[in-house]
Amino acid sequence: MAKFATHRDAGLVILPAYYAASLGTDQEQIIQYYVDICKESPVSDSAALIVNGYSSNPQIPLFLYNFPANSAGLDMSSAIIEAVIRQAPNLCGVKLTCGGSVAKLIRLSSFINSEPSVNLCRPYPFLLLDGLISDLTPWMKCGGHGTVSGIPNFAPAASMRLWALLNKPGLTDDEKREAERIQSILSNADVAAVPAGSMSCTNSTDMEWIPDAHY
């Protein structure tokens, strides 16, 4: 697999559900799992990495992916994630698709702001990404950097408009109301899509609530 990954710009690493029973009773195993994978990440030949600040022989930078629903209920605390960040300089960010994600975001953002070495030892600022778009507005207000969500696959216009508004300084009252309206539409879409899993994206063109149609 490493051979086929060499053209990639980054990787997303989730905990192995098969070993959930063992990992759930030993947090050090979880930390070491990510540290080892980051250490052994293959060298990338991606031109994008080399051009944008990495060395001539860069390892593929990795994201820690906390997604309990897809890893047999394993849910990493912010303390575990902080430990991985400290020990794995090739870790370039996290994606949180879990309960209490905004609270974890606040703690991780505070940790990164208090530890300048986190960003000094990396070519890019460490990224804190949401796994859902339903709470993107508070996510951005609490120090997050964006979202990797399934909803923009079938609601690109609404998603990009919300993103533009959240990154625009000095919003007018009309723009604030627009952002609130779009966030509400996308949040309702998340509620409908998440329980359905991948099939929700596959069948999205048949859904009456598709957000771009309402936007």
Automatic annotation (TrEMBL):
Entry keyword set: Lyase
MF terms in GO: 4-hydroxy-tetrahydrodipicolinate synthase activity
Top-level taxonomic group: Eukaryota
InterPro entries, A to Z: Aldolase_TIM, DapA-like
Gene3D superfamilies given in the database record: Aldolase class I (3.20.20.70)
Protein name listed in UniProt: Dihydrodipicolinate
UniProt source species: Colletotrichum fructicola (strain Nara gc5) (Anthracnose fungus)
